[in-house]
Amino acid sequence: MSSIVLNLLLVAVATVCVFGQDGELKVEVTFPVEKCDRKTKKHDLVTMHYVGKLENGSQFDSSMERNQPFQFQLGIGQVIKGWEDGLLDMCPGEKRRLTIPPNLAYGDKGAGDAIPPDSTLIFDVELVHTTDGPVPPNVFKQIDADNDETLTQEEVSKYLIQQALEHGQQQDENSEEHKTMIQTIFDHEDKDKDGVISKDEFSGPKHDEL
Ligand SMILES: [Ca+2]
Ligand SMILES: [Ca+2]
Q1: Which terminus of the chain faces fewer neighbouring Cβ atoms within 10 Å, N or C?
Q2: CB-CB contact of 141 with 154 (8 Å)
Q3: Which domains, from first to last, does the chain contain?
């Protein structure tokens, strides 16, 4: 499968998980920094220190112990939803405690041996640095060849074949694998089942906020 398909599927699955339960993120500011030139926003490259614990107090991860802060881009699905939402509008030097219910973390699957299913996670985080990140591509626009703001199966199919080619792979549009892929995407994304994916339905990058 090409990476974009995987991304589409992962986004769709993540969305399902988020709405599966209804725990709420709790954000406590433990060391406030009232004034700064720049607060974190979507698509920023942020550098954080963090210590992650389970509710019973057992620590599963710590950037402090590695003595290596963690850098990632906000707002593009690189981290759990509790981090995406809980690290916005933050000044460098500010510290927060995030209490993240399982539906905004690793859900009923957990993660590895360290995080059991249905775990609430408690992160003590400190923002070390934040800076502009690259703007992700508008994937919706790339797929919507005729610019009518909806995606047909044919448009998605052509896009996937094009993506595969760019990665040096041949993708046969008549193969069962290809048809299954399209079907899976439409099962997830065409929420009102009218046969096309609207911009609202599309879960990938579409830049509504820009
Ligand atoms: Ca179209
Ligand atoms: Ca639709």
Answers
A1: C
A2: no
A3: 24-132 (3.10.50.40), 137-198 (1.10.238.10)
Q: Is 50 a catalytic residue?
A: yes
Q: What is the pLDDT of residue 18?
A: 43
From the list 6, 145, 24, 23, the residue with the least C-alpha distance to 77 is 6
| Residues with Cβ within 8 Å of residue 101, at least 6 apart in sequence | 21, 23, 24, 25, 82, 120
pTM of the model: 0.65
190 CA distance to ligand 2 middle (Å): 4
Q: What is the pLDDT of residue 152?
A: 98
**Contact call for residues 205 and 25 (beta carbons, < 8 A):** no
Q: Residue 86's pLDDT is what?
A: 97
Ligand 1 centroid to residue 140 C-alpha, Å: 9
Please indicate whether residue 80 is annotated as part of the active site.
yes
C-alpha 209 – ligand 2 centre gap (Å): 21
- Measured distance CA(188)–CA(173) in Å, rounded: 20
Which residue stretches of the chain have pLDDT < 50? 1-6, 9-10, 12-21, 209-210
